[in-house]
Amino acid sequence: MGTPLPGTVGPTERADAARNRQLLLDAAHELVREHGVDSLTMDALAKRAGVGKGTVFRRFGSRSGLMHALLDHSERKNQEAFMFGPPPLGPGAPPVERLVAFGRERLLHLEVEGELHRAAEIGEAGDRYSGAPYGLLRAHVAMLLRQADAQGEIPLIVDSLLAILSAALVMHQMHVLGYTREQIGDNWEAFVRRVVTR
């Protein structure tokens, strides 16, 4: 088993350390939702959580470590929903309906925390497409496409579909071009249905 990323829960993390980590991540989520990703500094987080700045640095190492821990926390919750949650997002619905629900749920998530995702996408550059979070999304979408008997080069189709859900693109579409999350979701659904129609 590999070494956990900074800020992620390791197998031997004590219960009090896990509680402190959760307190800090909850406070970080509040800051991002209320004031945007630029407000997420180590000082601001320490003040919001009522702890010393040293505690924040010990837990996350740096602002970059904090951002990755926050995204990891968010991604884990989303992954649990589409892997084990109720249908249509989770198992039990037809694959096309699950794909549609996956995209719409992802867009809802981006509407709330899109700036955080966009900042991480920009910061990760070349790592974005080879990292574990993207790999899991790819595997999930590929599985559903195969279950729906989609034709063509599945890996290329997966990347093309996931590009529609890129945080940077979605934020541009909503905040610059003026599209709503519902319109972008309808576009996602149209693409999914075209891909699986023979």
- Give the assembly state of these chains: single chain
**H/E element order:** HHHHHHHHH
Report on the biggest sheet.
none
Report the span from N to C terminus. 42 Å
How many strands in all? 0
Low-confidence stretches: 1-11
Basic shape = elongated
Class from helix and strand fractions: mainly alpha
Helix proportion = over 70%
How many domains make up the coordinates? 2
Count of separate DSSP helical elements: 9
Radius of gyration, in angstroms, nearest whole number: 18 Å
β content, as a range? under 5%
Average pLDDT works out at 84
Question: What does it look like?
Answer:
- By secondary structure, this protein is mainly alpha-helical.
- It has two domains: 11-61, Homeodomain-like (Arc Repressor Mutant, subunit A, Orthogonal Bundle), CATH 1.10.10.60; 63-196.
- The protein has helices at residues 15-35, 42-49, 53-60, 63-84, 95-124, 132-147, 154-164, 167-175, 181-196.
- The longest helix is centred in the middle third of the chain and has 30 residues, at 95-124.
- It is elongated and about 60 Å long.
- The model is unreliable at 1-11 (pLDDT under 50).
Summarize the structure.
This protein is mostly helical. The protein is 71% helix and 0% strand.
